Amino acid sequence: MFTRKLGRSGLEISAMGMGCWAIGGPLWNGDEPLGWGQVDDQESIQAIHRALDLGITFFDTADVYGAGHSEQVLAKAFTGKRHDVIIATKFGNSFDPTTRQVQGPKSSPDYIRGACENSLRRLKTDYIDLYQFHLNDYDPVQAVEIRELMELFIKEGKIRCYGWSTDFPDRAKVFAEGEHCVAIQHQMNVLEDSAEIVAICEASNLASINRGPLAMGLLTGKYKQGSNLAADDVRGDNSPDWLQYFKDGQPNPIWLDKLSAIREILMLERHSLPQGALAWLWERSEQTIPIPGFRTVAQVEENCAAMNFGPLTEDQMGEIDDLLER
After folding, report:
1. Can you tell me the distance from the alpha carbon of 124 to that of 155, in angstroms, rounded to the nearest whole number?
2. Which residues, in sequence order, are CB contacts of 26 under 8 Å at separation 6+?
3. Beta bridge partners of 133
4. DSSP codes, 129-142
5. Which residue in 128, 200, 199, 196 sits closest to 162, CA to CA?
6. Which residues lie below 8 Å from residue 232, measured CB to CB, with a gap of 6+?
7. How many Å from the N-terminal Cα to the C-terminal Cα in the chain?
8. Helices (H), the chain
9. 103 by DSSP, 3-state: which?
10. DSSP of 214-239, one letter per residue?
11. CA distance 58 to 6
């Protein structure tokens, strides 16, 4: 089985994790969708069990995904299997589980302590393996207090280690100084490298947990010019301003052109486009752990099959850089 270390924690996990945002179901910020549409919980649980069968041991969620629903689905799926998995969740976004509305960022120590207790309850566990700060652009000076609170949670036995989900190198460096910080989660895929964050992870022996490894579905090859996404999908026609791979409910043609340029290389000696995209991440650094999302058993099977092929070659990596002019 293809495995990697979870940074300096020493924990050995599958080289790929499962991203559990999509299985949370609908989530809203006013009229703006932040979820991936309707879900079938039974299908989600079957998909999680299939991932376990195929060697996946790392599952990444957040308390806000589906306003707590993603954590609850994981709890059901992991009944009797808790010690077989490494669970990562996140904190920092308040929400109403009844309306499934996001209510905004919160970062006071009292709020975080309550959020941790709520995640433990929803996950039906007495510890969280990896607890991650979810506010991407939080003030790096004030983040020292958050980091020290995480160290306290470790002493109390609530969590085993912690990290920050951030795309900002200066913020990543703040958490990297913490004794039990083991990971930085950040946006990265073959279309959009993240050299500075990767360099920090390599220098500090942190896991580089890659969200958006398939560019929110663009790298599956499923979506083409003219494809339309549902209104309750975060990629739909009322998508958030920060979302770049899809615009006005359709794939962004700028990114489709980039994908077209490298499609053939990614699929060389592999069965599918997403398998090639995951292989690029594994060759990019020994610290990388991609976490593709899923909603079906078929998606899990296709992504997990990428572990049978392993990383791209150095030559293929160079060809891709040349084609993307970077």
Report:
1. 20
2. 33, 35, 37, 38, 66, 100, 232
3. 91, 164
4. EEEEE--TT--TTT
5. 128
6. 26, 33, 35, 37, 38
7. 33
8. 41-53, 69-77, 109-123, 143-156, 169-176, 195-204, 253-267, 273-284, 297-304, 314-323
9. strand
10. TGGGGGGT---TT----TTBTTSTT-
11. 10
- Tell me, yes or no, if the pTM score tops 0.90: yes
Distances in Å between the Cα of 298 and the Cα atoms of 44, 131, 174 are 11, 29, 39
How many CB atoms are located within 10 Å of the residue 136 CB?
A: 17
pLDDT per position as a tens digit, 287-308: 999 999 999 999 999 999 999 9
Domains within the chain, CATH numbers bracketed: 3-220+273-309 (3.20.20.100)
Give 230-287 pLDDT, tens digit per residue. 999 999 998 898 999 999 999 999 999 999 999 999 998 777 999 999 999 999 999 9
Catalytic residues: 65
* Amino acid in position 219: L
Is residue 228 within 8 Å of residue 25, measured between CB atoms? Answer: no
For 195, the token pair is 């050299």
